[in-house]
Amino acid sequence: MRAVLNQRDRGAEKDFLSRLCVIGSFPRSGSHWTRRMLGEIISLRSGIPATFGNPLNILAGFTQTVNRGNWKEHKEPIIWAAHDLRIAPTHWKIYLRRDFEEVFRSTQKAETELPDCWWGGSRDECFKKWKHHTEVGCSRAKLVVDYNMTRANPETTVRAICEVLEMNPTDEEVARALCAGRRENMLKEQTGSEHLTWSMVNTEDAYENC
């Protein structure tokens, strides 16, 4: 963890850990979708623009750039969206869960674009990885969010996650988050991003918004 902080300031490390909230998931379970909606709320509060893909990572509320020190000025929860079970295991607050058949179908699409799709493989191989990940992740989390629940009512998901993270969003912030997370908006942002190397939002499946 100290390598993440890129420093030896124990006081800063304690502060960082006290606010760290991991949102864990097996790949293709709605992580990017969830991050985009939460990112919009953080963007409204920080004034830093949030768009899908790499630009989203400049937000102080996401840990991809903590080594720049911008998290120190960010007074709200520090969100780490993680697939790796080894990352801060005692700080997994949220787990995003999706039905295996849906995950596997989406993974097959991802494998056509990614040379190293570590979570893929044969159906049996992928299932074993998914089953272990889901069991561990669900056992850690304070809140488990089902992908189909988010698809049916994304507002419920946003409010439930924000309650666990103690973000206390206004109705306007929630409305803006839902707008940002709409499939058409994320596809538009994905198309305009210079940093994406694969289709995080599946362009072929109208019912998928990863």
Protein architecture, described:
InterPro entries: P-loop_NTPase. This is Sulfotransferase. With 210 residues, the protein is an alpha/beta fold. The chain contains nine helices and four strands; from the N terminus they run H-H-E-H-E-E-H-H-E-H-H-H-H. A four-stranded parallel beta sheet has the order 2-1-3-4, sandwiched between helices. The model has no long low-confidence stretch (mean pLDDT 83).
Q: How is the topology of this model organized?
A:
Blueprint: H1 2-5, H2 10-19, E1 20-25, H3 31-46, E2 78-82, E3 92-97, H4 100-111, H5 123-140, E4 143-146, H6 147-152, H7 154-165, H8 171-180, H9 183-192
Parallel strand pairs: 1-2, 1-3, 3-4
What can be said about this structure in brief?
The protein has helices spanning 2-5, 10-19, 31-46, 100-111, 123-140, 147-152, 154-165, 171-180, 183-192; strands at residues 20-25, 78-82, 92-97, 143-146. The chain is of the alpha/beta class and 210 residues long.
